[in-house]
Fold these 2 entries.
Entry 1:
Amino acid sequence: WDAMTTPTVFRERRQLADRRARPTSFWSAFRFHGRRRGFRRAHEGRNAYVDCPAPRVTLLVIFTALCSVLDALFTLLHLGYGGSEANPIMAWALSQSTTLFVILKMGTTGICTWFLAILQQFRMAFIALHGLAFLYFLILVIHSLLLFS
């Protein structure tokens, strides 16, 4: 077979457009099902997007989501024992309805955590994701102290 009669399906991949010619865009990072998990060279990974979150980032997102659920549950328990909500926005949501409180709490935390996971290769976002997980851990410690005292 010569180059003229070879079907396009069998042409060498080197003749096709290089998919790495342009970086992963911000919008493609929202999909969470691509193939780019990281970068080969150290300097490439800074301030760039990946299609798939790193395992550590995935664990932080899951941990933060679980902590948010527990925080909402412990807050409702605490309110049942006569306590009050410290966050004024969440206090307003609670004055409207418990459902609004839970939706607002879970939605805000989920959107912020997801956004930080998308920006995992940006240093400040990576630090913020760790800070958010640690902050929720501290909130759960405070809830535990209030609950058991």
Entry 2:
Amino acid sequence: MAGVTCYYAVMATSTPARTALLGFLAGEGRDGAGRTLEEVLAFDDRAIERHHDFIQWLFPLPEPSGANPAAPVLTAAEIAAVRADPGLQAAIKRALQRMSAFYAATSHWLVPDDHNHLRITRIIRSSGLLLGREAAEQFYRLVLARNASTASPVSERSRQFWRTALDGLPSD
């Protein structure tokens, strides 16, 4: 019986099984639409704009998505797993680079209100939770600078959501 107790003690402290979200980020699984991480990261700018169900997989949050109820909900264990795994961190960094390139290269989102403003809020918050505040601040500065370079058409309301997402992150 002591062997059984020891086995359960080891199981309780070992790494939990990969969730669907972590499997997707690790490149071993698929998102809700059956796409791999590599397929999503290879989207061109038109595909990024056209598809609305991938962003919750690249940048998950601890709350259910209002736009995609089937999207994963980020757990504390998943946050810890990403922060502890350089491979998972690299996946989030690649996603952040891809979305940074998208917002730097496109201008259709530079209007008072656009669905991309919600995506930006999500990216700021998720990248901060998973990579740390510095990564979130860099992305925040990028979108603010892009907005400023076009006479600041994004509404104050959207920019306040971005600021609130950043301000709500813990200091690293």
